[in-house]
Amino acid sequence: MHNLFIFSGQPGVGKSTWSATLARACGGCFIDIDAHFASVVEAGLDLAGYHSDDRDSDMFKQTFREPIYSSMFALAKDNLVHSDVVMNGPFTRELSQPDWSTQLAETYKANVHILYLTCDTQVLKERIQKRGLSRDIAKLENWDRYQQRFYEAGSPLCRHIRIDTDREQRDEWIAAYLEKCDVIRKNGG
Fold first, then answer.
1. Which of 50, 89, 147, 166 could form a disulfide with 119 if both were Cys (CB 3.0 to 4.6 A apart)?
2. Rounded to a whole number, what is the largest CA-CA distance in the chain?
3. Residue 51 to residues 40, 60, 137, 167: CA-CA distances in angstroms?
4. Would you kindly state where each structural domain of the chain is located, as residue ranges?
5. 183 Cβ partners below 8 Å, 6+ apart?
6. Second-level CATH architecture of 3-179
7. Helix, strand, or coil (residue 186)
8. For helices 66-80 and 100-108, what crossing angle results, to 10°?
9. What does the alpha-carbon distance between residue 64 and residue 69 come to, in Å, rounded to a whole number?
């Protein structure tokens, strides 16, 4: 049975970096919500007359959220038959379902690992400023209101492992976790 690793958490917390590192370490299929779907989303938003950086409006969530997540899980299903899969995204709605990890394990016949990344709010803001993406401008301009959504959502209700990305050493943590999970590393890694 293969592993499905899901990295979740706020934008800027380190999902892409941590998940890419784990994918390399275990030789798994890597599915990144931004890297693999951003160009399609931007094209759709442009065509519909919306700002191509929109990721937080109700329109974006109603139009793009489900197709993106459906596509991500279709890719995961196709790859789990022959390899581990590492994916990342906010998964905000899913994290509020107490039995989400159990549902995933049953649906995909995989060992499911939900890794919820966090960091200090000031560190998060500095990371978002440093990456300099235009899609983050609205977040930064309305920082307190933006953060309020995450405070209100609270901790995930499903089974998960919380990782503080400004305190943990990424490479060491991932190596130790993969050993703990008894994942066989490929490519001599």
1. 166
2. 49
3. 13, 10, 12, 35
4. 3-179
5. 3, 26, 84
6. 3-Layer(aba) Sandwich (3.40)
7. coil
8. 50
9. 9
Pairing of strands 85-88, 111-118: unpaired
Residue 114, classed as helix, strand or coil, is strand
Sequence-ordered alpha helix ranges (H) in 56-120: 58-60, 66-80, 92-95, 100-108
Instruction: Give, for all 189 residues of the chain, the pLDDT tens digit.
Output: 899 999 999 888 999 999 999 999 999 999 998 888 778 877 887 787 776 666 666 666 777 788 889 999 999 999 999 999 999 999 989 999 999 999 999 999 999 999 999 999 899 999 889 988 877 788 888 888 888 877 777 789 999 999 999 999 999 999 999 988 865 434 333
Note whether 179 and 19 are within 8 A (CB).
Answer: no
Helix residue spans in 132-181 (DSSP H):
137-141, 143-153, 170-180
Tokens of 89: 């995204």
